[in-house]
Amino acid sequence: MAGNHTLKRDKMTPRLGGFALGIFLFPLLAQQIDFLEHYVDVMVFAGIYSLAALGLCLLMGYAGQISLGHASFFGLGAYISGVITTKYGINPWLCVFLGMLVSAVVAFAIGAPSLRLRGHYLAMATLAFCIIVTIIFNENVAITGGPDGLAFIPGIGIFGYALDSVTKYYYLVWSIVLLVLLLCLNVIRSRVGRALRSIHSSESAAGAVGVNVAKYKIYVFVLSAVIASVAGSLYAHYLNFINPSSFDLFVSIKLLIMIVLGGMYSLWGGIVGAVLITFLSYEWLHYFEDAEVMVYGAIVLVIIIFLPGGLVSLPDKAKVLWAREDGGRRVHKVGQ
Amino acid sequence: MEISFASQLLQYTITGITVGSIYAMVAVGFNIIYNVTEAINFAQGEFVMLGGLVMVFLRVTLNIPVVFSLPMAILVVTVVGILLDRLAIKPIRKPSVLSMIIATIGASFLIRGAAMFIWGKNPFDLPPFSGRNPISLFGAVVQPQGLWVIGFLVIMVIVLTLFFDRTILGKALRACAVNPKASSLVGINVKHMVLISFALSAAIGALGGIVITPISLMEYDRGAMLAVKGFSACALGGIGSFQGAVTGGLLIGLIECLGAGLISSGYKDVFAMLVLLAVLFIKPSGLLGSVEVSKIKKF
Fold it and tell me: Any idea what the CATH number is for the domain that residue B173 is in?
């Protein structure tokens, strides 16, 4: 598992280039086709969820830790941006930054004690955190608007240039996804990434050769929380409306499902999963709202049993199968 | 009628113990699976929900008397537990704690979704086992069903203690908890033990759901919160410890009811979560768990 994500620079560049080109071309193409036009809107949400998924991917696939609290960091970003811009009219970008800061501090406070322990204490601590945050969003009606939510959140612009159309916002969101992807790829290739991979293979072995296991896990957890917070801010400014149910445990688990579906051992998996699940929940399953939960459950089980590396591992898996079939025939011939 | 503070306090305590008994049952279920597999079963709350709803179907729709419908409902949910292991846990080729946890999350969604299809979104009521006439006790009110809940917890504790101490199967399960590799060396089939642990937890969860439904009703999405509270109980008592789970469950129930009654009912669900966070941060081994176990176990 661990050896698979050694990424070579020369292999990554064309992939990243293709990705950037795809991002650039998508709205231009979608606008030409009638029934695809609103897909740009869905892709904005897909981009926002991709951001959150990228951070979580780093945490789950590379540090081997489960977080069930990422919807809350997502929510912290959204609510800090939403509340402060609506009530005090402060520059939205400042609020994005403030959200990042708060999320970092909170993530450190939760991560530091629970990641020093071996195993999956973080899953439980973040689970509790997520439920507490949802209740706080719901109960503090004066600040957050309670269950009815917070409306009239202003949009966001860049240096006075208002991002007033879906397509403009699409480019903003996906540029940030690209930036964060580059950042995460760098993290993986750096000393931190090597340390993380060693932790995933064997925590005791990593510790024995002097890798400070807890430190790196905390680092990644805080980083992923900060990314989720940025995603939350972008969500609030795009939708102009937020309510607690967009940031509850179900969303945390949905983020987890995105990564499992796409493939948690690759950052690309996070993006693939986020885009697919977003389309599932915003478009394809929209009319079968009741079936959503069941479909997600089935997806997770099928993937974890038959394709633990997620959808992005399909090409590799096909190659292996192909090679095995070939090899099988040869063995058979030798037998004859 | 003015209710005195003392009797109010007594009322919260009684309700707390009743609710806590259910958390204790969920926590015991968690522990049994955790001890054998080291994984947290996120579908544990779903067993409780299913227990309640299957019982409603048998008791109310088919009108089968409690004496027969109770074991039948437990049996149905036990089969679901067995299926969970056979269809979701056992097929994982390279099982790791991470993948097992994710599988149980997936399974919990699947079960919840299926329950919604079968029963819909409305909560269901179940007639109490022995009437609804409340018994008054020093100004507080005790529902007869509450006594049933506590009684069943006591029975469960006695039966499980005997099972783990006196039977070969129980001892084999305990051996797996200590060291699965060594147990397989002495001839214990660990895969079977995993199956049994899932069946046993499902049965215990179902019992919890059956006895609490007459008090708190039951609907398809109750499982998640029950699982979380049960897990808090588990952590408070010390993960892996049987006595700890029971103590932790009762304590979480008490803290929740006293907190909701005396501080704020809107934040009712926060108290258990705060306890969970506090335990994880201050004493991860819990009240009754041994520090050694929590260090060795890769939980």
Answer: 1.10.3470
